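Title: Comparing notes on inverse folding

I've been comparing how different people in this forum approach sequence design from structure. To keep things fair, I'm posting one structure and asking everyone to reply with a full sequence. Here's the target:
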């Protein structure tokens, strides 16, 4: 349906308003984030790009309700979650927000299948197998060390979506992959944006071609 003259804006999945984060280490105060305000759109791929130390992982932890900001507010799906009730917070982290941590992040002593099933409260074998199949992972009963890094990352991606979250936060999703594997993983991530709101945190500016929105971070500030 085309509505001429109307701009239909969908509600952002996540809004950060004047977010600050400082760490105090011994006698030193580190300003990790300085006055960050961003609206992350729904069902799009947003990227936060910046060099090492610019505050990406700190921003990811605050966006994912893992860590609190020093000041400012965090609004997820229209609701203020700056100081969430602990039960609500755990519910959101478990069911509404998916995480793809950086580097190798599967449990070595669990098979790919078991790794993907891990976050499920009620283990759904059929859904897990179907999700891994869609990702193109065949060796689902292998332990991570016996499969390629690409298949490990596909399994990690499957694990991040297995509880059907609304938003997925991805920290450096291609940093340990070869160029050809990176392309395959980014194409897979693109295929997910119809169903999920995705935020990628990376120092690799090459990845911005896969994004709908780019936010540049330097020294804890938006640039
Ligand atoms: P990036 O992910 O872009 O590399 P980080 O968010 O990890 O950046 O770090 C931003 C800054 O905050 C760095 O100076 C880092 O040393 C500091 N920092 C991050 N987490 C902590 C912490 N828990 N304690 C002290 N300093 C931290
Ligand atoms: Mg980081």
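Reply #1:
Here's my take.
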């Amino acid at each position: 349906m085309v509505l001429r003259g109307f701009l239909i804006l969908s509600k952002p999945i996540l809004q950060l308003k004047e977010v600050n984060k400082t760490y105090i280490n011994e006698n030193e105060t580190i300003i990790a984030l300085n006055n960050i305000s961003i609206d992350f759109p729904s069902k799009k791929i947003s990227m936060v790009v910046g060099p090492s130390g610019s505050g990406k992982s700190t921003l990811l932890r605050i966006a994912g309700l893992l860590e609190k900001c020093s000041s400012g507010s965090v609004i997820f799906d229209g609701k203020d979650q700056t100081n969430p009730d602990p039960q609500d917070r755990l519910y959101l982290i478990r069911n509404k927000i998916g995480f793809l941590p950086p580097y190798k992040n599967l449990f070595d002593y669990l098979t790919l299948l078991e790794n993907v099933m891990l976050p499920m409260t009620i283990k759904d074998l059929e859904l897990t197998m179907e999700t891994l199949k869609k990702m193109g992972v065949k060796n689902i009963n292998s332990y991570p060390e016996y499969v390629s890094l690409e298949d490990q990352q596909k399994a990690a991606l499957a694990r991040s979506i297995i509880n059907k979250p609304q938003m997925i936060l991805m920290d450096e999703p291609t940093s340990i992959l070869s160029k050809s594997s990176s392309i395959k993983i980014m194409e897979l991530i693109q295929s997910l944006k119809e169903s999920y709101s995705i935020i990628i945190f990376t120092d690799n500016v090459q990845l911005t071609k896969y994004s709908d929105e780019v936010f540049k971070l330097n020294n804890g500030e938006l640039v």
